[in-house]
Amino acid sequence: MVASSVRVPLHAIELAPGSHLSIADISWEEYESLLQELGEERRSPRINYSQGTLELMSPLPAHERPHRIIGYIVTTILEIQERDWEDFGSTTFKKLEQAGLEPDTCFYIRHAEYARSRQRIDLETDPPPDLAIEVDFTSKTTLDAYQTIQVPEVWIFADGRLKIYVLEGDGYRESVASPTFPDLAMADLIPQFVQQAFVLGTRKMLRSLRQHLQ
Question: Model pTM greater than 0.85?
Answer without folding.
Answer: no
